[in-house]
Design brief:
single chain, 297 residues, alpha+beta, YojJ-like (1, elongated
Length: 297
């Protein structure tokens, strides 16, 4: 404490302003990547550096210490390459007045988890009955802000009527995916990465490949409703479970979708994968992302 008071007594107004500017730069940088996959990359890089520094200091490893000291200049070049989308987002927000002061859409209080699941399962059952194609992605620990930015932002409450309206054929937002964060619909008509293929179901089309593709890149869940057969599917960790009814879908989401309590949840209560169904389905391999006509069963 005496050393801290001594340092504080040596600071003048210019140095205080200098520290505040640096702190503001770091704050804005972290704010810009909040809700994206860059957070996990930063945690991974920071944890790796911490482990290496601890090992080299504890065991006094000269070669490893030399490697750590010489690798930092390379990180100055690697970090802009790794975080290119986030840096571009920072520059874009700088071009908008007050862009940094706007909080990301869809932050929830974690109190409406069961209500959100009820609304989603009812909407999927109604969409399946009418054979309206749909793709709903539920964000968990890994942020999906990169994909939210590709769609139309809504920041709407999750409700059956809203989801059915979004995926009604020929509406402006029916093409693409809806991303749900907590109890809010962040955006619709979002573009997702496609899986190269689904070995268990090779005849499935673009919508199912997008569901599998996004779950390969993040720990989210993706619910798919086929416009051809009305079959409901759930993707997790790059795996697809088929032929779910409303009850099975609800039970699976209750077991898997915990956006706020995941950190404190015991690992043995999280299923490693969903039970798959071998029920065959007649399917054309080029199913579009959304339907262009209202098809009734």
């Amino acid at each position: 404490m005496p050393d801290l008071f001594w340092v504080m007594s040596r600071l003048d107004m210019t140095q205080v302003v200098d520290i505040l500017i640096v702190a503001l730069i770091f704050y804005l940088a972290f704010l810009s990547i909040r809700g994206t996959r860059a957070v996990q990359l930063l945690w991974g890089i920071g944890l790796l550096i911490l482990i290496l520094v601890t090992i080299s200091s504890f065991f006094r490893l000269t070669t490893l210490s030399w490697l750590i000291k010489n690798i930092f200049p390379a990180l100055l070049i690697a970090i802009p390459i790794i975080f290119q989308p986030e840096l571009r987002r920072i520059l874009e927000r700088l071009g908008r007045a007050g862009g940094f002061m706007v909080s990301p859409l869809g932050l929830d209080n974690g109190d409406s988890e069961f209500s959100t699941i009820d609304e989603i399962t009812r909407a999927c059952a109604r969409l399946a009955e009418r054979r309206f194609g749909a793709l709903i992605v539920l964000e968990r620990k890994t942020g999906l802000q990169d994909f939210v930015d590709t769609g139309i932002r809504l920041d709407a409450a999750v409700s059956t009527e809203t989801l059915v309206t979004i995926f009604f054929p020929n509406t402006p937002l029916h093409d693409g995916a809806v991303i749900v964060r907590g109890n809010r619909i962040c955006a619709a008509a979002c573009i997702l990465p496609l899986a190269e293929g689904i070995p268990d179901y090779p005849k499935l089309g673009t919508r199912h490949r997008a569901a599998v593709g996004v779950t390969e890149e993040a720990d989210c869940l993706a619910v798919v409703v086929s416009e051809q057969t009305g079959t409901i599917s759930l993707a997790q960790n790059g795996r697809l479970s088929r032929a779910l009814d409303e009850v099975r879908l609800k039970n699976a989401l209750l077991a898997l979708y915990h956006p706020r309590s995941e950190k404190t949840r015991p690992f043995w209560r999280v299923p490693l994968h969903l039970p798959s169904s071998d029920e065959p389905e007649s399917r054309h391999p080029s199913e579009p992302v959304a339907s262009g006509a209202n098809k009734q069963p």
